[in-house]
Amino acid sequence: MPRVSVILPTYNRAHLLPRAITSVLQQRMADLELIVVDDGSNDATEALVAGMQDRRLRYVRHQQRRGAAAARNTGISLSRGQFLAFQDSDDAWLPQKLTLQLARLAHAPAHTGVVYCRFWQISGTQAQLVPSRLHHAVARLPFTARRLEGWLGPTLLHGNFITTQSALVKRECIERHGAFDSHMPRFQDWDLWLRLAPHYSFAYVSAPLLNAYVTSDSISKDDLALQAGFALLIAKYGHRQAGYGLAAQRHYVLGQLARAVGDKQVARQHFNAALKLHPCNPTYAWAFGQTLLKHLA
Known about the structure:
alpha/beta, globular, Glyco_trans_2-like
């Protein structure tokens, strides 16, 4: 039985898959299985995976497209590992990722259910660290609610900084509290972390161990799915004590989208709304302040 099961959902990404698969199979912690779940691709995905000879690699195919969350859940149902990890078809792990995460988990409290790592989010020639340097600085303050590890329920209500590919999850977390919600058009990972947060603490590896690439067909660019995803998150978790954070984050993200397409007035309105909901958030204050400076200039 492998120690770690890695689930990789894919759809028509044969041109990108070798990088993602190789980065998993070349992990220094070799006691793993990699389950590639093909969500109904009509490209060369099946032939490509068949040509990669490794006994730890398994291929499963959906006859019809069901979405990434359903594909991950299929992989989970077929997995055998004590721990679950997730890779995306367009990303790359660093070779020491699983080794460092397992080592961190070994020294974490027994109630720890998830260990995640920092990562580089790469779009073209631009790269940014997540969690950001600002988040790291704020997390060091003794009074902060923006922690990076421990009981992260309140922190996660103010935004998600744990991408699916960065997480290593104890199997018992999924068995007790459910897998990915396939009805969520976006934020399936954020939804899972919010569901687990009341029951398990989170551990963190500060080294960036993942390169997450933003590609032209990335779902992260689907604005309609984003709006619907936020609505479902607010319906599910908005009643929690710090649930206003979800509404604030929604305005902040919509402000970012408006700014990206040059609509400065709408961006300013959203950043202002986010700041009113969460006046002590330095990220919201900085974003709103920038729009004021540009407006006055």
